[in-house]
Design brief:
Chain B: It comes from Onishia taeanensis. The complex is a heterodimer of chains A (307) and B (383). With 307 residues, chain A is mostly helical. Chain A is built from 13 helices and four strands. With 383 residues, chain B is an alpha+beta fold. Classes of the chains: A mainly alpha (307), B alpha+beta (383).
Chain lengths: 307, 383
């Protein structure tokens, strides 16, 4: 988004010196964005409209083949496989985000009300695991969820899964992996929102005849909304494009859109299809952001909620 | 007797047409034996009994940590007492939660909701009470006009100045027309000029509405200017309850005297009837024998207010005329502040400047004080 601002900046011609100075300061960032975002983006988009060559390389002429394939139309007629993958991605993202919110909201509140000397410790405990590589952590979950482990045993004894199946690979394992990976990205902005909240406002709401529930809804929740929405964006967007977790914990059977795209660039050898999938993800992300922004404005009582 | 609304079913009245409290007999608030601790060593309230009358501007005055804010929070329902009973308009509300009490608070930090406009802040209490939108709008418009901030109604809270926020906080509480309005040092965050102006304004609002105001402050000047009655608190217990004049001129004990800014306190060495012997010399007081025997024992003090002292030529004689020497003189324009050596002690005197020749440093004078202006105080227990 900052790319757009950069492009507009040198518009005024009145003060050349000022404009020149401005250009100089934004040039490194703009160059970076140009080389690593704009140009690859344009390349990716053009690839999506090319024909798939015999070795998976993109070639002329320009067609809409890749988008038709993505929609499920192949040589053997229509198949819902890609549609399922898209739906699975959307549901996984939604479920994981909701779970992350459900866990983070009370957790962030708890940390913000803890004794001042414990707060940094609690935050550190939350963040430290993410200093380890995501792949390694995900392998860790494989070990925890595999058949014969205590967690799997517990799920078996509760008849949640058939015997000797293990919790992995499964949709549940993918959800769990997503929740685990993205928890800190929700807790931190929510914690910041709670920390800013003035406790006397809670008291003021009670004083002004609001029951505990209505105090939360009318005085507390709206003030944590910017943090909540920021967290949702930070969780939902990477979750939607997730590749590692679903690859490992889904065992290749519970593919997400990210895996679909990755496969076209690797084994599947169909770059145009992969590029089309990437564009679909991008569009879905923008649509999600737009909805969030509208929601934020409505819930925030007309105030801009910056995402 | 009282014409103001009673607690049982307060009818909606036009705020600006409320009858002033004609009679101050009905008890708006009654506190019995309130105790509150915040841990083993921290006693916030140590058995407080207090009655606040309907339509009264009542102030809780004391140094920080004296329990005045705790008392206010207990009344608001934000804190619950460990022991004791609390009635509002005759109804026991000790166990009633904050949101079901017909009291509203103006918080020290104002506690306005930053996510709401001024209008929505003002309407918050009415909305929570289930008042219809039409009536809400009308009452919010009324109150905004009443505090002369109608133009700010669409603003956001962070676009307001300190004084404006203070008024909005006041209006947000007033619009609910509570039985009692609680004010927790609402002026302490403002600069001196604005503070003085709002003191007058607040007092006027209270007089016009005839509403019971319970005001908390640590500033004795503020308390005296605004209050009908003051309760001075220290260490979680009430030291004295009375009118500003009572509290200032007849402090009940040494703590109250010192807190009200009195420095001229002298130990009473011994007593012969109404003649008291102090380091200044012998002085005659006007008090009953019962009063004196209570307040002239071990460690008791004599209070001489600086403004009751007259400086006369040195050759004067009479009751309570003591020879003195001027050691210091601070000229303050309308008044002059003197330090005098009297007997074995130093005395402060405040003399009005009426164009007479004022004594200067080194002069011998005669210090004269009327017997009825002298106050005897019991010994300083626990201060």
């Amino acid at each position: 988004m900052s790319g757009a601002r950069v492009a507009q900046a040198p518009g005024g011609r009145r003060a050349l010196g000022e404009t020149g100075h401005l250009l100089l300061t934004v040039a490194p960032g703009a160059l970076w964005l140009l080389i690593f975002l704009v140009l690859p983006g344009i390349y990716l988009m053009s690839v999506a409209f090319m024909t798939n060559g015999p070795y998976g390389q993109p070639q002329m002429p320009l067609t809409l083949d890749a988008f038709e394939r993505l929609a499920g139309y192949g040589i053997l007629g229509w198949s819902p496989a890609n549609l399922y993958t898209l739906l699975r991605s959307l549901t996984q993202t939604l479920v994981a985000t909701l779970l992350v919110v459900a866990i983070s909201y009370p957790l962030a509140y708890h940390i913000s009300t803890a004794k001042a000397r414990w707060r940094p410790v609690m935050l550190l405990a939350l963040v430290v695991p993410s200093w380890t590589n995501q792949v390694i952590r995900t392998f860790g979950w494989m070990n925890l969820l595999a058949p014969g482990t205590p967690l799997a045993g517990l799920a078996e004894s509760l008849s949640l899964i058939p015997p000797n199946m293990g919790l992995y690979p499964s949709n549940i394992a993918v959800t769990l992996g997503l929740v685990y990976n993205f928890l800190p990205f929700m807790v931190l902005p929510l914690y910041a929102a709670f920390e800013k909240l003035d406790i006397s406002q809670v008291e003021a709401a009670q004083d002004l005849y609001a029951s505990p529930l209505r105090t939360f809804w009318h005085a507390v929740f709206p003030q944590t909304l910017p943090g909540l929405l920021a967290g949702v964006v930070l969780v939902a967007i990477p979750a939607f494009g997730m590749y590692v977790v679903s690859e490992l914990l889904g065992g290749g059977k519970h593919m997400l859109l990210g895996n679909l795209v990755a496969r076209q660039f690797a084994g599947g050898a169909n770059w145009p299809l992969g590029a089309a999938g990437a564009i679909l993800m991008l569009l879905a992300t923008f649509a999600g952001l737009y909805v969030m922004r509208r929601m934020g404005r409505r819930l925030g009582g007309g105030n801009e909620v910056v995402i | 007797m009282s014409e103001t609304s009673t607690a049982s079913a307060p009818p909606r009245q036009d705020l600006t047409n409320r009858a002033p409290a004609a009679a101050r007999s009905a008890a708006a608030i009654n506190l019995e034996g309130l105790h509150k601790r915040f841990g083993p060593d921290s006693v916030a309230l140590d058995g407080v009994d207090l009655t606040i009358h309907e339509g009264e501007f009542f102030t809780l005055l004391g140094p920080s940590g004296c329990g005045k804010t705790t008392l206010l929070r207990i009344l608001a329902g934000l804190e619950s007492p460990d022991a004791g009973r609390l009635t509002l308009g005759g109804r026991d509300i000790t166990q009633v939660p904050a949101h079901r009490r017909s009291v509203n608070t103006v918080f020290q930090s104002y506690a306005l909701f930053p996510h709401l406009s001024v209008r929505d802040n003002l309407a918050f209490g009415l909305r929570m009470q289930g008042v219809s939108k039409a009536e809400r709008d009308a009452r919010v418009a009324d109150i905004a006009r009443f505090i002369q901030l109608g133009g700010l109604i669409e603003r956001r809270v962070d676009q307001l100045s300190g004084g404006q926020r203070q008024r909005i906080a006041l209006a947000r509480a007033l619009v609910c027309e509570p039985n009692v309005l609680l004010l927790d040092e609402p002026l302490s965050a403002l600069d001196a000029g604005l503070r003085g102006q709002l003191q007058v304004e607040l007092k006027r609002v209270q007089a016009r509405l005839g509403m019971t105001f319970l005001f908390v402050t640590h500033d004795q000047q503020e308390a005296m200017v605004m209050s009908d009655r003051i309760a001075v608190l220290n260490g979680g217990s009430i030291q004295q309850v009375g009118s500003p004049k009572d509290i200032y001129e007849r402090p009940a004990n040494a703590f109250v005297a010192r807190f009200m800014g009195h420095d001229n306190l002298f130990p009473i060495l011994d007593r012969d009837g109404v003649r008291l012997n102090t380091a200044l010399g012998a002085l005659t007081v006007e008090a009953s024998e019962a009063e004196l025997s209570e307040t002239s024992g071990e460690g008791s003090l004599l209070l001489i207010r600086p403004e009751t002292i007259d400086l006369l030529p040195p050759d004067q004689a009479g009751t309570n005329c003591l020879p003195a020497r001027v050691t210091d003189c601070l000229y303050r324009g309308s008044q002059a502040e003197y330090r005098l050596d009297v007997g074995d002690a130093e005395l402060q005197a405040m003399v009005n400047n009426r164009g007479w020749q004022l004594p200067s440093v080194g002069d011998r004078v005669c210090v004269s004080v009327a017997a009825e202006d002298l106050v005897t105080l019991a010994g300083e227990a626990g201060t």
